[in-house]
Amino acid sequence: MQPMETSERDAAVIETVKSIESQYRVDHVESGLPRWLIEVAFASYLLQAAINWAPLMHWMEEHAPLASAAIQTFGALVMYFGLMRGMKPLYRPMTVAWWIVIVLNIVGFVPLLFPVLIETVGLPTAVALMLVYLPFGCAIAFCYRGRLRQVGIWMALYILISSIIPVLSYLLVGPESGLANLPMEIPTIAVIVIYAWVQRRVLVK
C-alpha cells in the first residue's frame, strides 16, 4: 500500500504543479477582434517599420502627416486593445496599465499630425511612454510565461531601443540622414517588426 500511496501522492503533486503552471503560461488570448483587423494592424506595424528610416519619415511628415500619424498609431492601438480584452480572464489582467498605454498612444497621435506640438506635447508623451512601457513590459514578462511573456520582453526592448538608438545616432553620426545613418537605424526598424510579430502570435491562434 505504501508504494501505491506514494505514487498517488506524486501524481497529485504533478497535477497541482501543472494546474499552477497553466495559469502562468499563456500562448493565446481571445480578443474578440476579427482576424482581418488584427492582420491590418500587423501590416500597419510593418509600414511603421518601413517609414522609420529617417529620410522616408521626414518626407512622410512633410507631405503626408495624416498618413504618417495613422500608420504610427493604428497598429499599436488595435493590438493593445486586443491584448487588453484578451487578458481580462487571466489572473492578472493589468487592465488599468493597458488603458494608460492606449491613452498615451492616442495623445501621441496629435504631435505626429502637428509637428509644431512636438516640444509641448510630443516630448512629454514620449517620456511618459518610456516610464510606462518599461515597467509594464517587465511586469508582463515576470507574471506570465509562453508567448505572452515574449510580448512583455519585447515591449521593454521596443521602448528602450526606440528611445536610446536615436540619441546614440545623433551623438555618433550627427544630424546626417540617409545611408550613412542606416546601420544605426536598423535596430529601431527590426524591433518594430519583432514586437508586432510577438503581439500577433498571441492574438492569432
Topology:
Blueprint: H1 2-24, H2 35-50, H3 54-63, H4 65-87, H5 95-113, H6 118-143, H7 147-172, H8 182-203
Helix pairs in contact: 2-4, 2-8, 3-4, 4-5, 4-8, 5-6, 6-7, 7-8
Summarize the structure.
80% of the residues lie in helices and 0% in strands. The chain is mainly alpha-helical and 205 residues long. Residues 10-14 have low confidence and may be disordered.
Structure, described:
The protein is mostly helical and about 200 residues long. Helix content is about 80%, strand content about 0%. It is built from eight helices and no strands. α4 (about 65-85) packs antiparallel against α5, α5 packs antiparallel against α6 and α6 (about 120-145) runs antiparallel to α7 (about 145-170). The longest helix is centred in the middle third of the chain and has 26 residues, at about 120-145. It is globular, with a radius of gyration of 21 Å. The chain starts with a helix and ends with a helix. Residues about 10-15 have low confidence and may be disordered.
